[in-house]
Design brief:
Layout (H helix, E strand, L loop, with lengths): L8 H8 L13 H15 L3 H8 L17 H8 L5 H4 L2 E2 L8 E2 H7 L5 H14 L8 H13 L5 H9 L10 E6 L2 H14 L3 H12 L5 E7 L2 E6 L1 H13 L4 H13 L1
Parallel strand pairs: 1-2
Antiparallel strand pairs: 3-5, 4-5
Helix pairs in contact: 2-4, 6-8, 8-9, 10-13, 11-13
Length: 263
Amino acid sequence: MMSPLMDDLEVYSDLVSSVGVSYPDRILTPIECSDYIVQLKEETGESWEKLSKRLGLGKKRKLKTMDEPPDTTQIKLFVKLQKLSRKSAYRIRFGVSGNGDVGFTIGCLVADLEDKNEQDHLIDIVAEKAETDKPILKKDVQEILARKRRAPEESIEKIIEVVMKIKNPVTKISFVIVITAREEFIEKLQESKEKDNKTNDEILRQAIDKEFSNNEISSIRLKKGTIRLIIKEEDFKNIEARWKSKKMHVTHYFNQILLEALK
């Protein structure tokens, strides 16, 4: 049985230090923050205002408005991520889109789409175009969603083509996880490259296969300090259950697996 979040000081501390701050590299991913906030709400029964204050969320108050209830905009953005397809949820990162991931603000906007397949497609194309000369920005996503609301029968693929003036092929969307590679792992990876004369891709493939020997991880890449994993649909829930059963965060879980494999 899961212990109350407030009783687990380490996890609760990780949550507090991952929300209400401005730097992008945080202990928890946005969807993990969302999961824990929902758990906290269910366990405490507190109002969103009280939870916002507890977690240090909400706009800073001026002296004359200090007695007003805390703003709940930010905490409700985290909760909104619960509406995202789990295929895309772990691609949402703090900061801007790039390296195969999608920024938090755009992720929250895409969550408004009712069709999860359309969510996955839009997230995928935003990630794909992020580092090109024609990225899909927040304002573009807002226009795409506005057009979808006006013409719900129109496919999301067609709307993206019209708004962005790009060809938009329909692709099969996989479960994708994007995490930060920890410095200790990067150093160990460099040592292995120099010792074994292999590429990053070769070393990563061998390392992940030590833990997942049935090719559950169909692809693993490292780019600019970010690890991108593609997981087979039929295996995702079991893999997610592994790190949760160990009470580990997704970033720490995969960094530890890879680091241990290189020792």
